[in-house]
Amino acid sequence: MHGKKIILVDSNNLAYRAFYALPITIATSTGTVTNAVFGFTSMLIKLLEDEKPDIIVCAFDSRGPTFRHDIFKEYKAKRKKMPEELSIQIPLIREVLNSLNIESLEAEGYEADDIIATIVNNVKESFDEIIIVSSDKDILQLVSDKIKVMAVKKGITDTVLYDTNGVVEKYGVRPAEIKDLLALMGDASDNIPGVGGIGPKTALELVSELGSIEDIYKNIEKVKSEKLRNLLIKSQEIAKKSKKLTQLDSNIALNLDKVFARKISGDAYSKAEHIFSLLEFNTLKKRLKDVVNFYGGLIEKKSDEKSDILFIKDKTEAKRTPGLKKKIFLNPSAIEDLTVKGLKKIFISNYNIEIEEATGKENQGKFFSGIIIGDGIDNFYLFDEAALEDSDIQGNLAKVFEAESVVKSGFDFKQIFKLLQKFNIASDCKVIDYKIIYLLTNPVKSDVTIEEIFTEILNLNISEVSNTNLELEIFGQLGIGKNGKKVLKGLSPENGKIDQMMFHFESGSIIAEKDTGVMQEPVQKKVTVDIAGQLKENFDYLISSIKPLLNNMIYFSRIEEILTSRLKKENLETLYWKIEEPLIRVLADMEFRGVNIDIKYLNSLIKEYDISIRNLTKEIFRLCDSEFNINSTQQLAQVLYEKLKLQATKKTKTGFSTDAAALFSIYDSHPVIEKILDYREKVKLKNTYIDVLPNLIDTLDKRVHTTYNQLGTTTGRISSNNPNLQNIPVRTELGKQIRKAFIPGKGYGLLLSADYSQIELRILAHLSDDSELIEAFNSGQDIHTRTAAEVFGMEYSMVDENLRRKAKAINFGIIYGMTEFGLKSRLAISEEEAREYIRLYFARYPRIKNYINSLIQSAYKSGFTTTMFGRKRYIRELSSTNANLRNLGERLAVNTPIQGSAADVMKLATVVLFNNLKKEKLDCNIILHVHDELVLELKEENLERVKDIVRDSMENCVEIKARLKVDLKAAKNWYI
After folding, report:
1. What gap in Å lies between CA 424 and CA 537, rounded to an integer?
2. Which one of 489, 668, 690, 878 has the minimum C-beta count within 10 Å?
3. Boundaries of domain holding 414
4. 3-class DSSP state of 596
């Protein structure tokens, strides 16, 4: 075998690195942990991308004892057994390698290093460059002019490449002397004993001055220190044995001809792509395709190819919809045909395509937008924004969307609903939304694209789908261009620009659908349409942009079939139809409406914060008697702990910590700590909200339109971004100052805040069926005061603020699975006191203790936990061998049913309130959803009526034993 470059991978070493670098929560939707496989595969692809070797070989350690155990029985005796979560991934790594036609070598009685050394010994004259991927120190003995070692320093991508000079610079010896250095100083990771009493410094001096172990003992009299000389003489046997352990065996019997016969070839993609789909490595597929293309081009997979993947997965194969001859009906008159066809189901997609530079500078920054409706047979109906402005089309589309007999099916209906709302097209209908159903049945995912759904559910390569050869017949209306020639209506002949039209035929004819009134053309008569110059460029761009969407829609019925089956199998149909499905249009309405911002107030706040931050900076410099970068944790640590000599309480890998917890622990040590914390909070709020909000104001309606993530959290809570409204501080004055910028829109006089009172504790009382807590809530008592009275054994009226504070910490600590240590830190008490408080709490509320135990036991048994409405969360941490991760899993098993049920109730309340407001036809809108709070804008004269509707909707949306209570406050802004 000859070539320019070969890469040899120590696979066990890289797998360990990946396993500990990436969180164990990386897993498939069926629960198979894949963090090591993902990290290993990502690094493998990176090697192929960056290095482009002629060949790559992956070596694995022998699964049993090696020859080194014969030399020294205690070899690697102190090394912990491979974690089970990693061991089950090694076969998956081999599966990935096999699919790529990359050799994975293992030799009985030898380690991966020995296999690599043997290959190097056999091919070092045949390759211009050899790269070994390993972080083991002993592999460095192989480094030479053409042999380099790539070691992973941190994570899986931060690497260093050692050549001869690099080894000398790092360890002070030549590569060939690494084994002697390790033999003298020992290697704790492999339990190589070395010479007792000799550390790295002395070992380096000996090797540098005298050379190898053999040379040292030949010249033992040259060792100047008598003590060291005697130590070496006494330990001669163990020193030589240690060298045998560090010495790599480069003469293993390997069939290298067979090894080098395996190369990445064109058919590798189809095999590996299937494995990647099963492992759900969607982000790696594009990189994989590019790599395989480089090594010989793609060969399409055969339909009967299968994988021997080692975990269970839904293997339902995609069924290609028969018949690829499609008719495209262009707006506007196609809607008349759609409304009289009596369809039972329609498939819907929206499009919003940015016009790129290729279509002409005058179009840059503009979008082609509209919706596509498919009948699931052979017809598509396309409506651009120009058509959606037509009142007849609006009315006919509304009939289609509101027809209960027609099932509406598609991906991400929130975007579709917002587009329809823009043109006042009613869309009060039930929908089958693939995005929501997928995320509901895959709760470990926070988001998904239609491409990822194709890949996972249908096992289809999205490029295959997008490039399906459709034969298109395009039906539309004709007009006359300014040059007198026939043009397809939708082009604007007056100004020569595209007018948001979508399709140009590829193979087929453009057919006049009916007489247009502009030009008399018989129905179905083929005509020649003039599309020239800039118009043709736009048309060609549009066809290439939107055709993949049509190809996607061909498979929508199959996706729907699989996803709705999963929904039923997981017993999530009630949750979807009662809460998540109706919530889609509510969130669409909220996003579309947005919220009004007081820009004048915000600008004044920006100036105020600028002055305050400057003054704080000066004060911090004065108190520290030094100017430095306050935002630099390293510089701040130097000032606090070295210059000011404050007592550091927390250390990280890079030095002493300056995070909030560390600073609070030394809060009273120096007045500068208060100023630093104040500075940080103001800088964070300014950078996150005050400076950002003005840039997010829509230029058309002057409102901010946040994006709500319906299933973006594992508990089911709604989150938001651009801006993230969830993180605006609620209780601090600084947070309230920002909330003050949110005001009613034009025509509205008030904002109404509706905030659930202690909903999670009420849920806990209901689920645990604790009569004491239930009675306390239903009688209107302050729950924290009641808890203090119960736990500390006193009259309700005797509880002071300090005891109430402690009871509050316990109440909420229970929800979050707080330990004695956590309560100790929260209340600044001893661990013994914290333990006693928790004991007293559970002694008084035994049903809660029993409920918590039952949650943990159930989660261990099933691997997941559920909310009141059946929402699931899989807790992989419970199966970990790591005690800290298992403890985390137990806390999640406790708080998820409580927090998740509260999130479900909040979502249901939002839906019920939205529908009730709509039913009453009050000019009032829900504009914000933040944790347990809804914010509405309304007219002042409707305040009392709206309050009644809000209270009734939120408190009675679901019946629980500890009755729900909502706090209502109205004001001119969100400073409530």
Report:
1. 32
2. 668
3. 325-570
4. strand
Strand partners, 479: 487
Q: Is the dihedral of CA 469, 475, 480, 484 positive or negative?
A: positive
Length of the chain: 976
Distance from C-alpha of 638 to C-alpha of 139, rounded to nearest angstrom: 38
Cβ-based neighbours of 342, under 8 Å, separated by 6 or more: none
- Same domain, residue pair 191 and 337: no
DSSP string, 40-84: HHHHHHHHHHHH--SEEEEEE--SS--HHHHH-TTTTTTSPPPPH
Q: Which of 206, 236, 257 is the last residue of a domain?
A: 257
516, pLDDT greater than 80 = no
Would residue 758 count as lying in a domain?
no
Q: Do residues 89 and 19 lie in contact, with contact meaning Cβ atoms separated by under 8 Å?
A: yes
Q: Does residue 720 fall inside a structural domain?
A: no
Residue partners of 199: CB distance under 8 A and separation at least 6:
185
- CA distance linking residue 634 with residue 622, whole number of Å: 19
Q: What is the pLDDT of residue 227?
A: 83
Q: How far apart are CA 628 and CA 621, in angstroms?
A: 8
Domain CATH for 883: 1.10.150.20
Domain total for the chain? 4
The predicted model gives 202-225 an average pLDDT of 85
Backbone angles phi, psi at 933, to 5 degrees: -125, 140
Q: Return the SS3 of 381.
A: strand
| Alpha carbons 140 and 135: distance in angstroms, whole number | 9
Dig out the tokens for 699 from the structure: 């230029």
User: What is residue 473's predicted lDDT score, i.e. its pLDDT?
Assistant: 65
CA distance 772 to 367: 60
d(CA 396, CA 409): 18
Task: Map tokens 């909310």 to a residue.
Answer: 867
What does the alpha-carbon distance between residue 210 and residue 218 come to, in Å, rounded to a whole number?
9
Q: What would the DSSP string read from start to end of 304-333?
A: T-----SS----PPP-PPS--EEEEEETTT
User: What is the rounded CA–CA span in Å between residue 522 and residue 612?
Assistant: 75
27-39 residue pLDDT tens: 776 667 888 999 9
Mean model confidence pLDDT for the chain: 82
Measured CA to CA in angstroms, residue 75 lies from 65, 81, 763, 958 at distances of: 10, 13, 55, 64
Encoded amino acid at 184, one letter: L
Minimum mean pLDDT range among 656-660, 747-751, 962-966: 656-660
Do 491 and 608 fall within a single domain? no
Q: Is 197 left (phi over 0), alpha (psi -120 to 50) or beta?
A: left
- Whether residue 415 contacts residue 350, with contact meaning beta carbons closer than 8 Å, is answered with yes
Give pLDDT tens digits for 197-212.
Answer: 888 888 888 888 888 8
Q: What is the pLDDT of residues 757-813, one digit of tens each?
A: 999 999 999 999 999 899 999 999 899 999 899 888 889 889 998 889 888 888 888
941 has a pLDDT exceeding 90: yes
Q: How far apart are CA 534 and CA 486, in angstroms?
A: 16
User: What is the average per-residue pLDDT within 951-976?
Assistant: 96
Contact predicate 468/554, CB 8 Å? yes
Least Cα distance to 335 among 289, 390, 376 occurs for 390
Give the residue from 13, 57, 61 showing the smallest Cα distance to 36. 13
Q: What percentage of the chain reaches a pLDDT higher than 70?
A: 83
Q: Which of 192-196, 303-307, 355-359 has the lowest mean pLDDT?
A: 303-307
